[in-house]
Automatic annotation (TrEMBL):
Gene3D superfamilies linked: Vaccinia Virus protein VP39
This protein's name: SAM-dependent methyltransferase
Upper taxonomic lineage: Bacteria, Bacillati, Actinomycetota, Actinomycetes, Kitasatosporales
InterPro entries tied to this protein: SAM-dependent_MTases_sf
Native source species: Actinacidiphila bryophytorum
SUPFAM superfamilies: S-adenosyl-L-methionine-dependent methyltransferases (SSF53335)
Amino acid sequence: MLVPLYDTVNDRLDVGPGTGILALNCGSGLALLLAAARGAAVTGYDADPGRLRLAAERMAVPQRLGTLPRGALVADTAACLRTGAPTSADVRAGGYDVVTALDPATPAQDLRPALSAVAADARPGTAVVLAGWGPPERCSAARVLAVAARLAEPRGEAAPTPGIGGRDDLEDLARGAGLRPDGSGRVSCPFGYQDQASAVRGLLATGLFEAAVAATDQQQVDKEIAEALHPYRRPDGTVRMENVFRYLIARV
């Protein structure tokens, strides 16, 4: 569902053969796969070994994966996946052209250390791309995800939010890390599902409802999500939520 965002960023930065990309919080690797398909050499970091395994499967890695120790090469010479986050030494050694942080669900505070390392140790002029939700009034999914925060309240827990969504949050994050904003854009990324059950499963898979499930129960959360999805159901039973995502290009 975020393919339009990834393609737009790749087009704008002329990603292709010879481009070295470092992806922070690369998740299950779709953005890496699209960049690698253009000929880029990609390196992805993520804290979740399970998501890295899925990324490796998507990229048709020939090796049998083990526990994915830090620094493990799990693709060919043009692509590798690593657990955790890059250190300053990793950034210096990589000589990357582009650094991406394209997971809109990643809280800003989780990105700051890695972005600061990039700002301090990447080559001058390196492009750093951040992504987040657009204005709430333009993001149908954000309204549905708000159910997570409401249901988590009885337990006094703050449910995760969809990530960076304020008008100037991307710029503030970049400047706070020592980066220089150098352009931005918006991309339409509709979320489409074949039916309501698929939509509920997809939203639960984001992990944003875990606190809500702990505060109530799975059945209650499923019911509330289904009700919130009602305005986005179409006559043929499919579910479609219109969303706008924003990206910022910054420079080291």
